[in-house]
Structure formats: structure tokens, C-alpha cells
Write a structure and sequence with these properties.
Radius of gyration of chain B: 19 Å
Largest sheet of chain A: 8 strands, mixed
Order of helices and strands of chain B: EHHEEHEHHEHHHHHHH
Number of helices of chain A: 12
CATH superfamily of the largest domain in chain B: NADH:ubiquinone oxidoreductase-like, 20kDa subunit
Structural class of chain A: alpha+beta
Oligomer: heterodimer
Number of helices of chain B: 12
Structural class of chain B: alpha/beta
Number of strands of chain B: 5
Distance between the termini of chain B: 47 Å
CATH topology of the largest domain in chain B: Rossmann fold
Helix content of chain B: 25-40%
Strand content of chain A: 15-25%
Shape of chain A: globular
Shape of chain B: globular
Radius of gyration of chain A: 23 Å
CATH architecture of the largest domain in chain B: 3-Layer(aba) Sandwich
């Protein structure tokens, strides 16, 4: 955790004030809230909407909401959504066209104005995921305008991770439970004898300005220490880890692995992993016309490499088998993403593990591919020695 | 340019899918302006003999007479679109495919020899070429309009054949299997309904039939885990798309 002179301490009223101040400044505040047996991300109108006293128990293919006795508000792991639901929405209209009676066409871009978001409770893994989507969607020669507007306008309140889940593996992906940059404000929840409070640090001028409007006190040493210990301990409590090898090379050397057949037998190709992944960005476009043909719209919607039609070219799909589709997803995520966008596409949030109905575990698949490659290499070495 | 003609036919079915067309209340007048309804018994007794530009066929083929009739319909239709689980998968009446239909006729009818029925209930596409199959029990109103609109515009209808999970995730529904342990056919079922059941906390029961790439064999252990025995799984799979799911189980 970086030392910041602007650090302060908020109590629960301070957190309530944060939500109020953000709303008063015209922002749509999105935060974690309990709905349908899960902690989802949705618009909140008060800090009372936050999941005080709720935690989560997760495993591969299993998620359960569990009550907590300590009243913690950020002690839960990734739910079924990520912030991409808001920055890169599931469906978005790109333009509309009208045909007038004389046959002339007019095309209107969808510039209805983007909401001014404030995201409350962004985990460090998700901060990294947002940075990755920034490169994919807002970088390069053809930035996604809608994404860029929503993203640049968004105010990010990070919540450092003090309660990793059984499917979390951010540390092995080069991340960790601490928020170092990429936020306007960062909160670290502290629960001890001195009460329920939040160490708050600002990471931008906008953050500094909001913090000034909140009832808070200067950060004391005890709160700083407790926050640091909570985050440090979280680092050692990740439920899972990727094998400690160069995953990029592993994928490249595993294209013909037998393991793909094994995982294909279990994979439902339902697409859940890509939908919950905070970095998966693929979309398709849909042309909508009305019955008269005088009005047309182009919509962009989430698609997935697990959809057979996603790779449909002239004559049929390129990746017809589930083996080839799972392989495409994993090798892109962990390997070819580097060539395309300069980093891994995985931040270790564990969503794909938790929300896969059959519990396919990306860390277990990577480990199996690693073991298979090691076996193959041993076999080749033995053959060489024998010769 | 003459107005295209639309015809609606039914074979063995409950009429629910063709009623979906009448249920398009907001669009009905516009539709009536874009097509001439030439044959639609649910809407009008004024019938014209065809040929038709677009025929919507509901229902499955269960009798030799149905089989003959659907060939006639095909011959009179430029485009033939089948609508609903009966027409695209044989419907719930395909349960007969797993039993002895002669035994049923003997048990039910005083004069079974009056009954001229096929041993199986089959989708229309088993008998004639079909231009497009629209799934669902019943079909979704928005999808039905999309198929008709696409036909009028001369384009391919935008009807994805991925799983219901896509729809749940897009609308932000919490997964009922992962979060509640509720048995759900969503991961193997064709999207199109908008994922209605999971949005109300219950599992999908597959009324749109198998998706484009279902892996039923991988899902069945989950149904067992979540409390279903073999009999319950069989009953879940043997509803409106019984024959289609059965084919997947055997594949």
C-alpha cells in the first residue's frame, strides 16, 4: 500500500456520505447489493443498499451467499457480473436509419449521452480488468466511442481485498489484493475493537475533491496498520493459484494436447465463462429492421467464442468442435492476448471458475496442460537418451 | 410490386404458436399492411388457395394425412417456416415415439381400427424441405416478428442458436444452478425466450429444445447432484422437445 498524505478514515456515516455526495454530483452510483441470492452490481441510492453483513462461499461451479456476524460490507468475492456490464454493456445501439417517403436515407449515430458513473467497491483484480479493457476497447486505431465516454467519465472507488475466495488466484496472475493505482478513491475495510471503519486514500484530483466533502478524520497509525495487515493476510489466503510457469509458452506448446478432449467432454459450451469474465470483450452486431423496412437500427451485443456461430464464415463455423472453442478461449486469454494487447487477458478474479455450471477450473486446466507437457518432454528426453 | 401473401397452417398442435401471431397486437396493423393474409383460420374464414409467398406451419406430422398435407403446403409455398416445438421437434406428442402407439389406440378407442395414425410424431423437416425453423413452446412473439420482418426485407433472421445462459447473463439474472443449486436445462437449451424462468428463480425446462451445441451428457450429472434421480431427469427432458433431447442423449 502506498503512503499517501491524503489518507483518512471514514466510518459508516462517512461511507453513506460518499454515496450521497456522488449522487448529488449527478452520478449514477453502481455498487454491490444483494439480489436473488447473490451479491450483484446494480445502481444504489444509499449506502444502506450495500451488502452489510453478507459474505460469500464459493467453489468451482458453486456460489452461496452467507450471513456474516461482523457486519462487513466488502467481505465478499466476485459475483456474476463485473463492471463491464456498465462500461461495455450487453446490448448497445450504435446507430439508427430512417428512409423517408422519397426514398432518402438518414443515419443517426446514437449520441443519446452516456451516464456519468461512479463505481463503488471495485476490487484490485477488477481495476486491472478495467485497465485491460481500456487497452482493448479504448486504445488502438478504432476506439469504441461509447466505451471511451463511459470510461473517462467514471469515478472509481476501489475496495481493497481483505476476504479472498476459494476460486481467487489474482496473486499468481501478477496481481494482488492491494489497490495501488487506477482509482479515484480507495477504501480498505477495517473491523476490530476500535470499530467498523474504512481507511480511505485518494488517487486522483477528483478523488481528493470528493474526499474533502466527506466527514472523515486523518488516518491514525492503528487504522493504517490494521488495513495493511488485512490486505497482507489476504495475499496469503488466495484459494487457488496458476501453475508457476510461463503460461504464454505453455499454451503455445499445448495446441495439440490431449487435455483439450478431456475438457471438451465436460464443457457445456454455454458461454457463461466469457460472459462473467471481466476482460472478455467480444461482440457481434445485429441489424434490426421494422416490418415496413423504413426504420433500421444497428445493435452491438455480447457474443462469445463458445457460440458456434461466432466463428461462422462462408460455409460454416471455423471452430465447430467444443475442443476447438475451449482451446480458443484459453489460449487467447492466457497467451495470444499478449501478442494482441501486450498483457495476459486473465486477472485471476475466479469468476469463470465459480460461475461455470460444471465447475471447469482454469487453474486446473492450466496445471493439467503443464503436467501433460512435462510428461511429453520427459518422454522425448528418454527417447533421445536411448538413441 | 405486389404485396406478399402470408399463410398459416397447423398440423398436430395446440394452436398456441399461431395465436402468438395474433398476439402481436402493436404490430398487427402494420403487418396487415405489409402482407396479404391469404390463409389463417384462426383469424379469418376467408381463404385463398395459394400459392403463398410465406407459409408458417405449426404442428407435427402424426398421421399419413398430415404427411400428405404438408407436402401440398410445401408445393404451394415459396418459403416455408416451421414455428414451435411441435413443428420443429415433434412436440410433446412425440412421447409416443418411446411407446407402442397401437397399444394406446386399443386402450383409448372403442374402434381402434378407425384410427389411422403414424407410429411417431415427427417435425415437418423430416418430411419436406424447410426454409427456417423457429423454436419454442410457444414461439416468442419478438422472434416470430423478426422472422417475418427478415423475410420481408430479404435478409437472414437474427435468431441465435446459443444457450439460454447467454440470455441470463445479458439480462443480469443470477445463475440458479450455481447460486441456488436449482436444476436447470439452460446450458443445453436454445435461447429465444429471453430466459424467462431463471429470471423468476426457477430452472429452465427446455421448451426451446437443444441449443446449437448442447452437451447433455455433461449436464446430467449436475441434475443428479441437484436432487434429480434418473426418472426425474427423464421427465425433465421428455416434455415439448422430447424427441430432440432424446436424440442428444443418444448422440
Amino acid at each position: 500500500m502506498t503512503k499517501n498524505p491524503a489518507a483518512g478514515v471514514l466510518d459508516r456515516d462517512g461511507l453513506s456520505a460518499l454515496v450521497e455526495v456522488l449522487i448529488a454530483r449527478g452520478r449514477t452510483v453502481i455498487g454491490p447489493t444483494v439480489r436473488d441470492g447473490a451479491i450483484v452490481l446494480a445502481e444504489i441510492t444509499s449506502a444502506d443498499d450495500l451488502p452489510f453483513g453478507w459474505g460469500t462461499q464459493v467453489e468451482a461451479g458453486r456460489y452461496r451467499l452467507v450471513p456474516r456476524t461482523d457486519g462487513a460490507v466488502f467481505a465478499h468475492t466476485a459475483g456474476p457480473q463485473s463492471w463491464k456490464t456498465f462500461l461495455h454493456p450487453p446490448r448497445e445501439r450504435l446507430w439508427s436509419a430512417e428512409r423517408a417517403q422519397d426514398g432518402t436515407l438518414s443515419v443517426t449515430g446514437d449520441d443519446s449521452g452516456q451516464p456519468s458513473y461512479a463505481f463503488l467497491g471495485v476490487r484490485p483484480c477488477d481495476l486491472r480488468a478495467i485497465t485491460i479493457q481500456d487497452r482493448v476497447l479504448a486504445g488502438g486505431r478504432y476506439p469504441d466511442q461509447g466505451y471511451r465516454e463511459r470510461r473517462t467519465g467514471a469515478f472509481l472507488v476501489a475496495a481493497e481485498c481483505t476476504e479472498p475466495g476459494a476460486t481467487c488466484f489474482c496473486v499468481s496472475m501478477g496481481g494482488g489484493p492491494a489497490a495501488d493505482s487506477g482509482f479515484d478513491l480507495a477504501l480498505t475495510e477495517v473491523l476490530d475493537g476500535a470499530g467498523h471503519r474504512f481507511l480511505v486514500r485518494s488517487g486522483s484530483e477528483a478523488g481528493q475533491e470528493i474526499l474533502a466533502d466527506l466527514p472523515h478524520r486523518p488516518a491514525d497509525a492503528a487504522t493504517r496498520d490494521a488495513a495493511r495487515v488485512a490486505v497482507d493476510e489476504a495475499r496469503d489466503r488466495m484459494g487457488r493459484a496458476m501453475p508457476p510457469v510461463d503460461l504464454r509458452t505453455l499454451m503455445g506448446e499445448s495446441l495439440e494436447a490431449d487435455r483439450w478432449d478431456d475438457v471438451a467432454a465436460r464443457c457445456l459450451t454455454c458461454g457463461n465463462c466469457t460472459m462473467v469474465c471481466p476482460t472478455c470483450f467480444c461482440t457481434t452486431t445485429e441489424e434490426v429492421t421494422d416490418l415496413t423496412g423504413d426504420h433500421a437500427e444497428r445493435w452491438q451485443r455480447w457474443d462469445s467464442c463458445f457460440d458456434v456461430d461466432f466463428s461462422h464464415l462462408h460455409g460454416g463455423p471455423v471452430r465447430a468442435s467444443s475442443r476447438s472453442r475451449y482451446r480458443q478461449w484459453l489460449t487467447h486469454k492466457l497467451s495470444t492476448w499478449y501478442e494482441q494487447f501486450g498483457s495476459s487477458g486473465c486477472v485471476g478474479c475466479g469468476r469463470c471458475v465459480t460461475w461455470c455450471p460444471v465447475g471447469i477450473d482454469i487453474t486446473e486446466e492450466a496445471r493439467a496442460l503443464h503436467d501433460e507437457r512435462a510428461g511429453r518432454l520427459r518422454h522425448e528426453q528418454r527417447k533421445e537418451t536411448e538413441q | 410490386m405486389s404485396v406478399p401473401t402470408l399463410a398459416v397452417f397447423k398440423l398436430a398442435s395446440c394452436d398456441g404458436c399461431q395465436l402468438t401471431l395474433l398476439d402481436c397486437e402493436d404490430e398487427l396493423l402494420t403487418l396487415a399492411g405489409e402482407v396479404r393474409i391469404a390463409h389463417f383460420l384462426e383469424a379469418s374464414s376467408a381463404l385463398t388457395p395459394g400459392p403463398y409467398d410465406l407459409a408458417l406451419v405449426e404442428g407435427s406430422v402424426t398421421t399419413p394425412a398430415d404427411a400428405e398435407r404438408v407436402r401440398e403446403i410445401r408445393a404451394r409455398s415459396r418459403r416455408l417456416v416451421t414455428i414451435g416445438a411441435c413443428a420443429t421437434a415433434g412436440g410433446i406428442q412425440a412421447l409416443r415415439n418411446f411407446a407402442d402407439v397401437e397399444e394406446f389406440t386399443r386402450a383409448v378407442y372403442a374402434r381402434p381400427d378407425y384410427i389411422d395414425v403414424l407410429a411417431t410424431s415427427t417435425p415437418v423437416a423430416d418430411h419436406v424441405d424447410v426454409d427456417f425453423e423457429l423454436r419454442g413452446c410457444p414461439v416468442d412473439r419478438g422472434q416470430l416478428l423478426e422472422v417475418i420482418t427478415a423475410y420481408l426485407a430479404g435478409r437472414k433472421p437474427d435468431i441465435p442458436d446459443h444457450s439460454v445462459c447467454f440470455a441470463c447473463k445479458r439480462r443480469g439474472t443470477v445463475c440458479v444452478t450455481v447460486a441456488h443449486g436449482t436444476p436447470c436445462l439452460g446450458p443445453v437449451t436454445h435461447a429465444g425466450c429471453g430466459a424467462v424462468c431463471p429470471a423468476y428463480g426457477r430452472g429452465c425446462y427446455g421448451c426451446f429444445g437443444p441449443s446449437g451445441s448442447p452437451n447433455l451428457r455433461a449436464l446430467i450429472p449436475l441434475l443428479h447432484r441437484d436432487g434429480m434421480d434418473d426418472r426425474a431427469v427423464e421427465r425433465l427432458l421428455r416434455t415439448f422437445n422430447a424427441a430432440a433431447f432424446d436424440r442428444e442423449v443418444r448422440s
